Amino acid sequence: xxxxxxxxxxxxxxxxxxxAALERQIFDFLGYQWAPILANFLHIMAxxxxxxxxxxxxxxxxxxxxxWLVLWVGWNAFIICFYLEVGRLSQDRDFIMTFNTSLHRxxxxxxxxxxxxxxxxxxxxxxxxxxxxxxxGCLLDYQYIEVVSSATQIFLAxxxxxxACYVSKVFLEEEDSFDxxxxxxxxxxxxxxxxxxxxxxxxxx
Length: 205
Known about the structure:
Blueprint: H1 2-30, H2 34-55, H3 59-83, H4 108-111, E1 116-120, E2 132-136, H5 142-181
Antiparallel strand pairs: 1-2
């Protein structure tokens, strides 16, 4: 029962991670955030690998999933620092999220709760094929929405990492127990050999 509870809990956390990653992927696509889109895709693949490893009792897949979660926590910590402009990070200067291919920001910048977008006509600050807007009245700034999203991802990843290590350890112990108790190698198992029904009789001359 303990093993089933650990497996079921891990599958549950993986499903929550999958839903959260898909939700985040949609809004990153809408905001043309190419770096997060790539990271989200890799995360979705890793979560699916973790679910498969849990259901199929594959400890190696769970270890790979756990290693990825460490990288995922680091990536989300960087996103939090980026949107809070920790250190020398600046959203006005660094367009890391779009690989410096465009000036797009987070989708929540213009579509946050209560935000009112007003275009600025004939602005000299606008580059070619771009327009300047002002955003006001937001109940929650887009930076904090992105920070909350990344903090949620870190929370789920930490719990997933703990349970992945636990379930992987249980699987490894079961494999060792099988080799000791019921494994073929433990008893020096050999396949049965066919015996001939012919009997040799002494030859008298």
